[in-house]
Amino acid sequence: MNIEEKPTFATPFEWMGGEDKVKALTDRFYDLMDLEPAYAELRAAHGHDLVNAREKLFWFLCGWLGGPQHYSDRFGHPMLRARHLAFSIGIRERDQWMACMRQTMSEVGLEPTLAARLAESFFGTADWMRNRGD
Asked: How far is CA 30 from CA 33, 76, 97, 101, 125, in A?
């Protein structure tokens, strides 16, 4: 391979580095949410225990990124919007989720091109999850 050629990956999951990297991303995301005052509203929406949320996001992201379908194998189709209707999600919560995920992707060392692509996809999904107009 020419030194200037970049390796190609079949999926973002593979590009990221597999389950270990997805787990690191998920764990850091919830650690930041728990620690950073800037994510207070987002954290409040998750209740007192983040264990279940960590696990489900890890399972979901593995499949969403093109890896093992852990979430779907356990629960069927993710139906993200329907599963989040019980939560009040507005612009502030969307923006906090995105800020937390961008910080997380940076801190776990995702390749910048991959992080930018994921951020674009995450934003579309996060915006679609809003169920309040503000």
From this structure: 5, 24, 10, 9, 18
Number of domains in the chain: 1
The answer as to whether 134 is a domain residue is: no
pLDDT tens readout for residues 29-65: 999 999 999 999 889 888 888 999 999 999 999 999 9
DSSP for 1-65?
--TTPPPP-SSHHHHHTSHHHHHHHHHHHHHHHHH-GGGHHHHHTT-S--HHHHHHHHHHHHHHT
C-alpha distance from residue 129 to each of 13, 17, 82 (Å): 23, 27, 9
Domain that holds residue 76: 15-128
Which residue is it, tokens 């612009």?
91
Handedness of CA 130, 121, 47, 40 (dihedral sign): negative
